[in-house]
Write a structure and sequence with these properties.
Blueprint lengths: L3 E5 L3 H13 L3 E5 L2 H5 L7 E6 L2 E2 L2 E2 L12 E8 L4 H8 L5 E4 L4 H23 L7 H13 L6 E4 L6 H12 L5 E5 L5 H9 L16 H4 L4 E5 L6 H13 L1 E3 L6 E3 L3 E6 L3 H6 L5 H7 L2 E4 L9 H17 L4 E2 L3 H7 L5 H15 L4 E2 L26 H15 L4 H8 L3 H17 L1
Parallel strand pairs: 1-2, 1-3, 3-6, 6-7, 8-13, 8-14, 9-10, 10-13, 15-16
Antiparallel strand pairs: 4-5, 11-12
Protein name: Sigma-54 dependent transcriptional regulator
Pfam families: AAA_lid_14 (PF25601), HTH_8 (PF02954), Response_reg (PF00072), Sigma54_activat (PF00158)
InterPro entries: AAA+_ATPase, AAA_lid_NorR, CheY-like_superfamily, Homeodomain-like_sf, HTH_Fis, P-loop_NTPase, Sig_transdc_resp-reg_receiver, Sigma_54_int
Amino acid sequence: MPASLLIVDDDRDFTASAADFARMRGFQPYVAHSLEQSRQMGHLPPLDLLLLDLDLPDGSGLELLDDPAMPEHEHAVIVTGQPTVESAIQAVSRPVYDYLLKPLCPEQFDALLAQSAAAHARAQAAHHYGMVGRCDAMQRVYADIERVAPSDASVLIWGDSGTGKELVARALHERSGRRGPFVPVNAGAISPELLASHLFGHERGSFTGATHRHPGHFEQAQGGTLFLDEITEMSPSAQIYLLRVLESGSLVRVGGTETVPIDVRVIAATNRDPHATMAEGRLREDLFYRLADYPIVLPSLRERGDDILMLAQHFLDALNARHGTEKRLADDSERLLQRHAWPGNVRELRSAIQRAYLGSDGAIVRVWPTPRRTGIGGVDTDGVVFTIGTSYAEIEREMLARTLEHFDNDRTRTAQALGVSVRTIHNQLARLKRAKDSR
């Protein structure tokens, strides 16, 4: 599908010219000349760009930014011929991507369209490979995939469990143009004694039970991509052998003498901090630098903002399609989904949606995240426990402090997790500081 934009402006000459310009750049343009006409566009698919005039015959264009009747849009840009300080302040406080003045410079409009088209292309590629998300962090991941996939560079994917490392690896393979297969291997699931045999193959009689020659995963991935997950779980001896194979482009099967040339691109992944594992001596530094020609860091789900809601709906849509139902998320699901920390990331969210779907008797699906494991005495290891009689002020103070600590003092993420505004967080911290200073 082409990138799309909606132009909302009562100047018909401007809308016609802007629509023609966008169409020549490969966009599908839509036009509305009033608030009322704009609200009738709710049937449109999600838009990549909303070009919005402030002064419309029936009100201010800013009214449309939070209007549920409007189609979903990636970026909103204000374009006005009558700029005022008041409108600029209002625009800054809203989810507005840019604030432009008429007459609109063609080079400026062209650059805006180019940015939207690039983001649209990345999102389309991501959707094609099973990834869902529009947040800035995921846009950077999509850009990384497009940038490095056609090369022969080794890639190290670093992210928490459940963030989609294998999906990224598959996308890199699909975009690489390599004709061989994609071979995924979980290095942490193979015993250290058998890992060399699995990866590099073995000759007949090389050990008890080796009744015939066995080509390893490297040979199976000839001409394609070998994905080594949990690379930090490999034994030191296997790491040395892997480094030698990567450096030489050839291998010798276990128990053999023949040198076998290989043409394999290696993509590795880990859910641990590779720098910490090197400091601990669990990952060889020379292997790290050989694997990390190009590192890709995946964001945790709690860092992806509204992507949580998008993914939840995506998983529910898939279940509805599979079972021929029309179930929908409960009205209070948004707040609950946003407040949960999702330690299991996308994998946990998918499980929660499926569990809620199967457990719902009617058309409403109410999501309940998996309860956290508890520590000694039944205390939640990632929560706050209060005794009967604790004051509301103390509960509020402790919850704010623990949440800020969890998100490394990031007030925006803390506000999202607690379901309040960033201003509320600032005010609460200021109040607590005044109370402390007055003691």
